[in-house]
Design brief:
Layout: E1 14-18, E2 21-26, E3 44-48, E4 50-55, H1 68-71, E5 77-83, H2 91-100, E6 104-110, H3 130-139, E7 144-151, H4 153-156, H5 162-173, E8 179-183, H6 190-196, E9 202-204, E10 215-216, E11 221-222, H7 224-231, E12 235-237, H8 247-255, H9 269-273, H10 280-290, H11 294-299, H12 303-309, E13 325-331, E14 335-338, E15 344-347, E16 350-358, E17 361-364
Parallel strand pairs: 4-5, 5-6, 6-7, 7-8, 8-9, 9-12
Antiparallel strand pairs: 1-2, 3-13, 10-11, 13-16, 14-15, 16-17
């Protein structure tokens, strides 16, 4: 690639890709490649490939489903992580479909053996089987990155905090793999949840507008225990979703010095087509209108999720890393953005992905 630039680079540079890896980065690389991509457009930028660490893309499910490339490469996203759609009994049906996708696809395994076949997958503790989880991870060691536990009343039934405590034991048995925890309506309370999670665990839906979230709408401030949790190293992930992102919460958090660590969509076919999610670019725009810079937003969809989820060859523009890139434009255009609770903000900078490059293969999003 010739004469590319990033949003924060002072000049242009070349990138040499060989066998799907970044071979060289320099102000100018001599010689001609078998394929060249020239980016002299003053409105175009390049970043490491965007990573969406919370999607639902197993097309054979009924509740939350989509198709990997519809939420991946077609949106400028080079890597997606299905967050708990499947469990030990169902992931074998998802794996071959994931491998057929152009997009890099990984999974967080639901601690319920069935995954999200019904809304209340953690209401029956008998469906949390350590032996099955250990066995299936051995079958798919490079596909299953970690585990997922959805901690909402509609999911856990009468079991309260117990499934999360079981998830922590499973995490340890698997070698301290990443654990993503969905936070929603109580019980269990968010305070109970943060008493169990530890540094490096991922709280998704961090800026939801629910009473059981991090924000006290009566006091107009973040709850003290939530701030302490963040300060102790628990990861805050956006996980926008249909009902889990609120502008006021995100804005007050920023005002109090609390930023999300990673930006993800919790996208599936309904909130992709009907909103309020639509795609990762729109979610990134919402964090920009809240007050995040483009530079830090891009870090939160590349380097940050790669580190959180153990994707050691992704997320950076460095020699030896995978040749995954997103090429995008930033337009000076007015656009109304809507959060999960119907609140509106207007942005004057709109993000438009142009190309996704995965393992050195170029995909034009507009084709």
């Amino acid at each position: 690639m010739k004469q590319v630039r990033t949003v924060d680079s002072k000049g242009r540079f070349d990138i040499l890709v060989v066998d799907g890896k970044i071979k060289e980065i320099a102000p100018e690389i001599q010689g001609n490649g078998t394929e060249e991509l020239l980016l002299l457009d003053e409105t175009s930028y390049l970043s490491a490939g965007w990573i969406d660490g919370h999607v639902h893309c197993f097309e054979k499910l009924d509740l939350y489903y989509d198709y990997p490339d519809e939420v991946g490469v077609k949106q400028g996203v080079t890597t997606i992580v299905d967050a708990g759609s499947t469990g030990a009994d169902t992931i074998s049906g998802f794996y071959p479909l994931a491998q057929e996708a152009k997009t890099n696809v990984y999974a967080l395994l639901n601690i319920s053996q069935e995954g999200i076949i019904t809304q209340d997958e953690l209401s029956d503790l008998e469906k949390i089987q350590l032996g099955k989880i250990l066995s299936i991870r051995e079958n798919y060691p490079n596909f299953i990155l970690g585990i997922k536990a959805r901690m909402s009343k509609s999911v856990v039934g009468e079991n309260g905090i117990t499934p999360l405590k079981m998830a922590k034991k499973i995490q340890q048995e698997l070698g301290n793999v990443p654990l993503m925890v969905h936070i929603g309506s109580a019980p269990p309370t968010l305070e109970e949840i943060v008493d169990v999670v530890e540094k490096g665990d991922i709280l998704t839906h961090c800026f939801n507008g629910k009473a059981n979230g991090i924000y006290d709408f009566n006091q107009k401030k973040l709850k003290d225990f939530a701030v302490h949790c963040k300060e102790e190293g628990v990861i805050f992930d956006i996980g926008h979703g249909t009902d889990s992102f609120n502008f006021e919460v995100a804005e007050e958090a920023l005002h109090e010095g609390i930023k999300a660590d990673s930006i993800s969509t919790d996208i599936y076919i309904r909130n992709r087509k009907n909103g309020p999610v639509y795609n990762l670019a729109t979610t990134m725009e919402k964090l920009h209108v809240v007050g995040y810079s483009w530079s830090e937003i891009l870090e939160k969809v590349t380097k940050a999720p790669a580190k959180q989820l153990g994707l050691t060859t992704k997320g950076k523009l460095e020699v030896g890393y995978d040749a995954d890139f997103t090429i995008f434009q930033i337009h000076d255009t007015m656009k109304v953005l809507i959060d999960s609770n119907g609140n509106e903000r207007t942005t004057d900078e709109v993000l438009e992905p142009q190309k996704a490059i995965i393992g050195g293969v170029i995909y034009d999003i507009n084709e």
